[in-house]
Design a protein that fits this description.
22 helices, binds ligand ME8, alpha/beta, elongated, 5-stranded antiparallel beta sheet, 6-stranded parallel beta sheet
Length: 659
């Protein structure tokens, strides 16, 4: 059986979890879920790094013992992961006794092999980094990371003969070009290795720091925090002789950000080599999220911390944003506006809309039951299916290669193609003619199949949404039971199974900081008689490029209704749109003149329309219908085959607001 082992850094407990930690851990989770979907046996490790100067100082500042302090912050990390749908197999703490024993075991082993020696060292030390800096690294007498003056310090300490492993490491990175990925970080490590490596100081005298693991061969010293921390990756799986270690270490992959490239790209390989432990398979290095604290949106006077946005906008929207927005390896900017934009465009309009349109059609035309493929697929069906197959291939190839955003782009291309397919095929027209039933069946079934594959493909990224989609499509599996190979086979939905429409997957967000009122239950507010709607919804969508809202039929809050600017308008001009049976171009006076394209040509002649007062939605985003801009929407009631315009009881001044 194929195996997959993924680790995140173990996070320092001197700061609370933030967006950077969340990103790394969500990426690890998505990779882990992907490998499960591929049928791999997986192990996913995260945890906290709790020893060292930094933690001791933070505990002192908080006025408590280091262990009590570490317990508290470590608890925050442990609690947040399930809230972000992160499903790690183990949470390691460097204060766990099993870990401390393994650190001592490794130290003793390396010491016995003669790879650790005792020596005096005088140099420039940074407390923040917990290490000495070489002349070459110092910038203007300061620590290049903290921009703070360094302290001169002399100490007798233990040193690990790291320099000895330089040539071996260069050779390893050259013969395993994808060991450190993406390439820019491999090059960075190789560039570093062009200069002579120095040996690594791996101890701290107890009188200066006692918050650490004692050296097994000299109790007057504790272990340098990096030597302690890196070993978590093997101690957590039972090194030296545990079953998990045997199973998973040969396939180990680490994920880190660029800030800790040096300890992972240089110290860790050298430590492994010295301890006789095989090298990890991949070190995956991503860039930094810049939050530009000042630039963060402060709607309603509250300063928003990025992690606080997950519950506000929805967990899956948050995960989607992080994975879609950052190109793995490069830096990215986090801002709330961008998140809202993605939520509305990609999630509400594209995915949410496709799903609700598909289910609405299944409900309307087939009594919620999955129809058979009634007719042979035509060219458009095959084109869409090919798009889906292509997305599956991209998904399978891109995720192991860290191309998360590319995998998502491929899935969304498929969603976009399916929405366009609906517009093109116009199922509502097929539904008008019983002889076209087999074709309508094939169209709706094709769409249901696309939705099913999408539900499977998004499962590593958005597990909750995937789960909801699977349930509503009557697929009797949870996301965890899915297998890519069998669950993306075209046509395998169960004919006759009953789908359920449910609420929209992603309610639209009006603006950052202002989440729309929660949608109420489906079906409640539907009127008994004719649906008053701004023209048949599908027809409007059928030609427009503009984003359209999901087809929600739940209760809404009065605030939401008030956002719709309804006005009385006087039709000044009307003319048929050439080459269209349905569309007329109107000039409507609402205090200003508006050009509106309306789908009422079949029931209303242009001559009859001029001089009429109508009701229109005045604050709709402009849309293009057959290439003509439309700045509003006329209200009409469908009555059988007929369409009646909604008009005021008596003539009023044009522009009168309806409330
Ligand atoms: O370095 N953007 O812990 P740490 C993206 N304990 N990722 C970020 C980020 C940002 N702005 N800020 C932090 C340590 N991260 C050590 C690790 S491992 C044996 C010991 C993420 O709490 C990213 O994964 O400072 C980065 O590498 C890690 O948090 C650093 O976490």
């Amino acid at each position: 059986m194929n195996r997959f082992y993924i680790t995140t850094p173990i996070y320092y407990v001197n700061a609370e979890p933030h967006i950077g930690h969340a990103y790394t851990t969500i990426v690890a989770d998505a990779m882990n879920r992907f490998h499960k979907l591929m049928g791999f046996k997986t192990f996913f490790l995260t945890g906290t790094d709790e020893h060292g100067d930094k933690i001791a100082q933070a505990a002192q500042a908080a006025g408590i013992e280091p262990k009590a302090y570490a317990d508290r912050v470590s608890g925050l990390f442990r609690q947040i992961w399930p809230k972000l749908s992160v499903e790690n197999d183990k949470f390691i703490r460097t204060t766990d006794s099993e870990h401390m024993e393994v650190v001592q075991y490794v130290l003793q082993k390396v010491f016995d092999a003669g790879e650790i020696y005792f020596s005096s060292y005088k140099g420039q030390y940074c407390v923040g980094c917990e290490r000495f800096y070489t002349e070459r690294e110092i910038v203007d007498g300061k620590c290049p990371d903290h921009d703070k003056p360094l302290i001169e310090r002399e100490e007798a300490n233990y040193f690990f003969k790291m320099s000895k492993y330089q040539d071996w490491l260069i050779a390893h990175l050259e013969s395993n070009p994808d060991c450190i990925r993406p390439e820019r970080y491999r090059n960075e490590v190789l560039a570093f290795l062009r200069e002579p490596l120095e040996d690594l100081c791996i101890s701290r005298p107890v009188e200066r720091l006692n918050w650490g693991i004692p050296l097994p061969f000299d109790a007057k010293y504790v272990t340098y925090v990096w030597f302690d921390a890196l070993i978590n990756y093997v101690s957590a799986i039972g090194y030296p002789d545990g079953e998990l270690y045997r199973e998973f270490w040969p396939v180990a992959q680490h994920i880190i950000a660029k800030d800790i490239l040096k300890p992972h790209g240089i110290y860790w390989p050298a430590m492994l080599k010295a301890a006789g432990i095989p090298m990890f398979r991949h070190l995956n290095v991503h860039g930094y999220w810049n939050t530009g604290a000042g630039k963060m949106s402060k709607s309603h006077g509250t300063v928003v911390r990025p992690l606080d946005l997950a519950p506000v906008y929805g967990l899956d929207a948050f995960r989607y944003f992080l994975l879609r927005e950052m190109v793995f390896g490069l830096d990215a900017n986090f801002n709330e506006e961008a998140l809202v934009q993605r939520l509305n465009a990609d999630l509400a309009n594209d995915l949410g809309n496709l799903f609700s349109r598909t289910l609405a059609m299944t409900a309307r035309y087939f009594d919620e039951k999955i129809p058979p493929f009634g007719s042979q697929p035509d060219e458009k069906d095959l084109e869409l299916r090919a798009r889906v197959e292509e997305a599956i291939v991209q998904f399978r190839e891109e995720i192991p290669a860290l191309g998360f955003h590319k995998a998502l782009v491929a899935i969304w291309e498929c969603i976009g193609a399916a929405n366009k397919y609906i517009d093109y095929v116009s199922p509502w027209n097929l539904a008008k003619d019983e002889r076209l039933l087999p074709r309508l069946q094939t169209v709706v079934r094709t769409l249901l199949e696309v939705n099913r594959v999408v539900a499977v493909l998004i499962s590593p990224f958005m597990p909750l949404t995937s789960e909801k989609m699977l349930e509503r499509l009557a697929i009797g599996k949870t996301a965890a039971d899915l297998r890519l190979a069998e669950d993306t086979v075209w046509g395998s939905l169960q004919e006759g199974a009953k789908v359920s429409k449910g609420e929209s997957l992603f309610p639209r967000i009006e603006a950052p900081g202002k989440k729309l009122p929660k949608e109420a239950k489906q079906g409640a507010g539907k009127s008994a008689g004719g649906d008053v709607s701004p023209m048949p919804k599908e027809e409007i969508k059928s030609k427009g490029d503009a984003p359209s809202a999901p087809m929600d039929e739940g209760l809404i809050d009065i605030d939401l209704f008030r956002q719709v600017d309804l006005r009385v308008g006087l039709i000044k001009k009307a003319e048929k749109v050439p080459q269209s049976e349905k569309l007329v171009k109107l000039i409507v006076d609402i205090g200003e003149e508006r050009q509106i394209v309306a789908g009422i040509a079949k029931t209303h002649s242009p001559e009859d329309l001029v001089g009429k007062q109508v009701v229109l939605v005045a604050n709709l985003k402009p849309a293009k219908l057959m290439g003509i801009e439309s700045h509003g929407m006329i209200l009409a009631v469908r009555d059988g085959q007929d369409l009646k315009l909604v008009v005021p009881e008596q003539n009023v001044s044009p522009g009168g607001k309806i409330s």
